[in-house]
Amino acid sequence: MPNQTADPPHHIAFVVLPEFSNMGLALAIEPLFVANWLAQRQIFRWSILSLDGLSVRASNGMHLPVDGALGEIGTYRTVIVVASFNVKAHAEDQRLLNWLRRMARFGADMGAIETGSEILAAAHLLDGHPATVHWDNLEGFQERYPDVEAVTQLYTMGRGRMTCAGATTTLDMMLRWIAEQTDTGLADEVAQHFLMARQRPPHQEQNAPDTALGSVANQKVQQALGIMQKTTDEPLLCHEVAARVGLSERQLQRHFQRHVGMSMAQQYLQFRLAKAHKLLQQTDLPVTEVAISSGFGSLENFSRTYRRHFGCSPSADRQQSTTAPVFRHRTMGRG
């Protein structure tokens, strides 16, 4: 039987923004339900809010009914923003930002799933705090919010703030949060019901394609790839990269063909286009500045190369939506 003398449930508001991740929301709510079920009492309760009180379309096309609009339902001990695509537009919604600031002033802990961290950053609620940013949004986030310590670990938690990279890291973060709100024993039981043999620590790094380059077997190629990534704004000549790793250009080109599957120049261009793609979709930087930051000395050359790769001009690719062009990250060879 439920404990009638127990503390009132911890009330959580999930603020879901259009094109949010349905997976992220589910992995946040389901552990709360399982914790309540195991405890045989309502430790947690939650409300799902949208900007206008109407249903919200997820990135997968499903429409989610909500419990109300911002400001319509009670007070909350914790507020978690759930967002994924097209977050840049919502980061300028002053009504949303003001409501979040008000919740924080009233003492609510603030959290974010995936690009929800950008909303908290836009409200200046992450200034001076570490915040986890999904690897695909890191460069854009750092450009827009220099006062926030952007990190690529799985999740962060502390001083009334918690953020995660989304997807499966949402479950890791929520299990840790449940442990802090109740006890580790209950969180471990919840993890067992989710078939999680091991709960990942917050400081573990995301498996981003760029960091996964370290899995390339050849050490010289690893070093060269690292140099290329750090010099996308001022690309080196291929023989200069080779000299830095102690090989001739011909030797390093052979290693690239074997271990990466393309030439050095092709890989360099991939890094530069990836950077340009993120800056265009995730920031408001002028196209000319994006071109320079990506190592293109000529705007005409940048536009021509970008159009050839993405099928549109740089100026037509300024939204990170589900219908926008996608940059595919190749899996590096391991042989």
From TrEMBL:
Residues 222-320 form the HTH araC/xylS-type domain. It comes from the Bacteria. Keywords: DNA-binding, Transcription, Transcription regulation. The keyword NADP does not apply. GO terms for molecular function: DNA-binding transcription factor activity; sequence-specific DNA binding. Residues 313-335 are annotated as: Disordered. The keyword Oxidoreductase does not apply. PANTHER family: ARAC-FAMILY TRANSCRIPTIONAL REGULATOR, HTH-TYPE TRANSCRIPTIONAL REGULATOR RV1931C. This is AraC family transcriptional regulator with amidase-like domain. The lineage of its organism: Bacteria, Pseudomonadati, Pseudomonadota, Alphaproteobacteria, Rhodospirillales.
